[in-house]
Amino acid sequence: MWTRRAVTRLVWPLGAWLACGGGERARPLRLATTTSVHDSGLMGVLGPAFTAASGRPVEVVAVGSKRAIELLATGQVDGAVTHSPVEEAQALASGRIGGRIPFMRNAYVLVGPAAAAGVVAGATDIRGALRAVAGSGRRFVARGDESGTHQRELQLWAAAGVPSESAFILRIHGSMAEALALAAREHAFTLSDRATFLARRGDLGLAVLFQGGSELDNVYSVLEPAPQAGGDLDGARAFVEFLRSPAGRSLIGSFGVDTVGEPLFTPVE
């Protein structure tokens, strides 16, 4: 039972509730995925494609990366899609998860009101940009939900020498889409994965104000369950194989081209 606030569950039967080789209903593959993969729309493409290819329905819960790892470690899901490398490495080293397979990447970007571009105009790296934001008198919307993006925020504020509990930082305990919407209403800055921002920028009135540099690299991985967790390891590995197949890589690499004019994610080897 899902009890996390702002959880989203999606099921894609696509006529494939029947297993490929027989007449019994296949149990859904349960996946916990970071909200950015959901909010960008990518999981809405990958889930049905995997179901069509495998005959296995998919049930998705969209949560922050830390929560996704917890759900996997306690056997509540069969696999997880996360983008919090430090927490992933810790979970793997401790045996709470059974495997970590990177499969795609994009980047984080600092976004804010287009009229505020001058605030960070002189910054040469993200640390300088965040120090400029801190001194600007404007607000910064923080996820505050222990997601991969939230963890990166904390790392970047620490690197910039700015306390993450500063009064100008507004913590919302919400998704990437919610953070972008609030930043638009408050004429504030926020850190977003590039895919979700481009997919949802619409009439937000926000623009990318700083980008580039290794500190903003954003790698997504599929996590497999540890043996003691009781998750469906075979199902998780089938999902990994699909994502790394030519068909899966093509879907990932082309996602966004038709809607925003550029790929939103890049497959990794």
From TrEMBL:
Domain of life of the native organism: Bacteria
Listed PROSITE patterns: PROKAR_LIPOPROTEIN (PS51257)
Pfam (any one): PBP_like_2
InterPro entries cross-referenced by the UniProt entry: ABC-Tungstate_binding, PBP_domain
Domain PBP: 31-245
Protein name stated in the entry: Substrate-binding domain-containing protein
Organism: Nannocystis pusilla
